[in-house]
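Duplicate of earlier report; TetR/AcrR family transcriptional regulator input re-posted below.
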Amino acid sequence: MSLKTRDRLLIEAERLVRRLGYAGFSYADLAAEVGITKASIHHHFPSKEAMGLALVAAYDERYDAAMAKILEAHADAPARIDAYAALYLKGLEDDLGCLCAALAVEVAALPAAFRTALSAFFAKHVEWLAAVIAEGQAAGDLRPGVGSQALARQIIATLEGALLMERVFGRAGGFRDTLAALRASVAA
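Output:
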C-alpha cells in the first residue's frame, strides 16, 4: 500500500467523522468509501484509535498552516477573526462539522489520548485568538474591557455552536448572520 492510499483513508475517515461522529463510522464504512478491504486499512492503522489520532494530528497541522496564512494575509484583528470564521463557514458549506468538535461531543467515550489531543487543539486556538484579540484591543479595533482569553473562548464557542446549529437548519446564511452579530459584539 502506498502513502497515497493512507492519505485517501485519512481524507475519507475525516469526512465520515465530521459527518457522522467517531462512533458513527466503522472500518467497513471506510473500506467501502475507499474501495479497499478492512484488512488493508489495518495495514495503515492497526486500530481506530490510531487512525483517529492521525486524523487529529493532520487536522491540527492544516489549521496551523491556515492560521499562519491568516496572520500573513490580514493586518488587523477584525479581518483575522473574519478569516478564521471563514474556515468554519467552509465546513458548513461542505456539510461538515468541525472534526475536533465532533470528537469533543463524544469525549467521555474516547480514549485518554484523544482527550489530550483535543484539549491541545482547542487550547492552541484559544491562545492564537487571544493574541489576535490583544493586538486588536491595543490597536483600538476591538472592544476593550473583556479579557482576551475569555473573548477568544466566546468566539470559538460561538463559531462551533453556529456551525452545529446551521448544519441542522442547512443555512449558511444563518451562520453569516451569527458572524455579523459576533463582529458587532466585539467591535470597538
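Residues 9 and 34 are 7 Å apart (CA to CA).

Merging into the original ticket.
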